[in-house]
Specification:
By secondary structure, the chain is α+β, with helices and mostly antiparallel strands. The radius of gyration is 27 Å and the shape is flat. The chain contains six helices and ten strands, in the order ααββαββββββααββα. The longest helix has 35 residues, at 2-36. Helix 4 packs antiparallel against helix 5 (256-265). A hairpin with a 2-residue loop joins strand 5 and strand 6. Strands 5-6-4-3-7 form a five-stranded mixed beta sheet, with no helix packed on it. The protein starts with a helix and ends in a 5-residue tail after the last helix. The protein has helices at residues 2-36, 42-45, 121-136, 238-252, 256-265, 282-292; strands spanning 49-52, 55-59, 153-157, 171-178, 187-188, 191-196, 206-209, 235-236, 267-268, 279-281.
Length: 297
Amino acid sequence: MRKTTWIRQHLAALRALLVLTVITGIAYPVAVFVVAQVPGLHDKAEGSLLERDGGIVGSSLIGQAFTDGNGNALPQYFQSRPSSSGKGDGYDPTATSFTNLGPESIVDTLAADPDDAKQSLLTQVCARSKAIGEREGVDGARPYCTPSGVGAVLAVFGPRDAQGTVPTPSRVVSVNEPCPTTPFLTTYRGVHVDCATPGDDYTPALTLPVRGNAPADPPVPPDAVVTSASGLDPDISPSYATLQIPRIAKSRNIPEEEVHTLVTTHTANRTLGFLGEPRVNVLELNLDLDRKYPVKG
């Protein structure tokens, strides 16, 4: 009796295995494949690939760099968001990643060997904003950034009061400006500000970000200086696209109004009217730009 029960149980398990294999291993994949061939879904199912002159140049779902062999931005193209995926200029779809750096990442790791040095999130933002400002002909200054493009952060040594401040500093160091750089501030509360010595430990001091006089709403928008979660965001904000219009128009020798119209055409509104933010697909915009206003020479 026990042997019969054991056989029935195993036969039932085998039947269940076969049925589920047919449903989940054959029927479901075939159904998904068939649905993916429906007009309107086929291109997305194939990766939303975009072509030019008969060749695939990318996907509208994955960001890419528009730079030369040295990593410099090509002036005739709209630039994407910065990326931390993969080495070099990023945008490696096989190595999607994020920096794991947050608002408290404001102090750089300085080292004599450049390979051991590490920029804080604040310095990355400052450096990118400065570079983009120079490229686009606007003021790249941001709050808590030095004019040289690093985080404006002081290490203030001395006894602290009940509020945690240091009313009478004994020593002050600009921790993100290695010697022999001249610090962005000459003095702080009457104490001379020193440059930082790579390898020195400044953790016992009070870490103090200095806001400076940069505008609260700088011309360089946030998405131009911070990476996306995946590092492969194919879109930029309309404000970042608009910032690049004068450079694009000058490079292609066309009126700015023509480029602005193209940006407006490629601006997508919030999904379903309330999800996300308005966005511009960089690859699609650049391809359309090449079709209508090819670079001469």
